[in-house]
Amino acid sequence: MAPGPVVLDTDTLFELSRGNTLVKARAVSYLAEFGRLTVTAITVFERLRGSRAAIRAGKPFERQLQAFEALIANSVVLPFDQDAAAVAADIWSASRGRQRRQLGDILIAAVAVSRQIPLATRNRRDFQRLTDVSGVNLHLVDWTAVTDA
What we know:
The chain is mainly alpha-helical. Helices cover 59% and strands 8% of the residues.
């Protein structure tokens, strides 16, 4: 397990909710060490947005929404604050075109960078591109990879 807390990206949290066995095992180990999962308010927004839109479209997502809300009630939710806003502005201003449209990723990365906490994501390529153009120090881990913790 990591030497300190890790922020779970939206896709890692989604894999956990889908029952990905590797992610589930890492989450159990993480919970044994840290007591609660850590996510950003942006991830909460992204998941709520998706679930509520599906429910409005008539899809039976009520149980998934309730399960997610219960998970979040027992998690550390890091807010998007002034420090994260400054980092996000640095990332966004260094980015171009398609990267700027990845605002959720920019905001999640900024929260992790501003708190110097690694980000657990399957989406290494996009996050790495954001860090490469901006020069921010974002440490990435992948809970779905066999060799990464």
